[in-house]
Structure formats: structure tokens, C-alpha cells
Amino acid sequence: MRLLQASLDKFKNITPKLSGESERVICLEEETPKAEIPAGVENLMERFARHSTKKSRGRKTQQEVQLSIVKKATNEDGKEDLKQEHISIILEPEEQEINPKLKVPGAKLLHLKETLQQRMKERREQEREKRQMAYNIDNEEMGGGEGEEEEEEEEERKAELSDGIYE
Description:
The chain has a two-stranded antiparallel sheet with strand order 1-2. 51% of the residues lie in helices and 14% in strands. The chain is flat, with a radius of gyration of 44 Å. The protein has helices at residues 2-12, 39-53, 107-166; strands at residues 63-74, 80-91. The protein contains 3 helices and 2 strands. By secondary structure, it is of the alpha+beta class. The protein has a domain at 63-138. It comes from Stichopus japonicus (Sea cucumber).
């Protein structure tokens, strides 16, 4: 209790004063000062806004591109030299055909999955046909003997069953 009284006596003699950084303005009218957003967060939000507003990646105008080609050539003396050629190419603007059904989020992925599954089904069907043809060819080569063997086995079984019944 005495400690509390002693600390209160010290604070009674102190007069309050406002202080702060020299660049900051102290405003007594606002209830709470707004929290400052760190620079890293601001940069991240700006990058997100830039990337989310990009619409197309294709070229909208003609572009001239300079290409340099390096070739290895042999002289009359038999020495190999490198020669550089410059070519300018004009790239035409790209036209992207966007299906309005594919503008829905996830629609492109579903479309891709469907086309891949269709290709897989076709490929499996082709493989099955090849295997079936190979199987048929193998059976035709051995074909005559198998049918006779099966018939003989069935006759033997019937004979064994009939022998067992009459004894």
C-alpha cells in the first residue's frame, strides 16, 4: 500500500504534455488514428491489382522482331568462321477464339479433362482392337487342333460319367 501511495505522489507532480515525431501531425479530433499499412503489403496489393487486370497475353498489334542467326562456314583455306546474319520478321497479331462457355471459372479445366479422357478412350479402343486381332491371328494358326482336342475331352468326360453311373 505504501508503494502505491508513493508512486501516486510522484505522478501528482508530473504535468501531461503532448509529444511525437517532428514530421507527424497530432490531431486531437480523431478518436483513433488509422493504422498505417506496411510498404510490403502495399506492394503486394499493387502487384495483385496489376496481374488481375491483365486480360490477354496475345499480341494486339503487328510487331517487328530482329533475329540474328550465327552460322559456321568454312573458307577456301579450310578455316572455319562464324558468320552472323540479321533477319527482321513481322509478327501478325494473334486472334484468340474464346468460347463464351469457357469464361466460367473452371470450365477450361473441365473441357481439357473431357478432351483428354476422350483421347484416352480412343487410344484404349485401338489397343484393344490390335490385341484382339493379334489374338485372332494366333488362334487361327493353332485353330484346327484346338477344336478337335476340346471335342475329344468332352467325349472322354461324358464317357467317364456314364461309366461311373452304370457300375
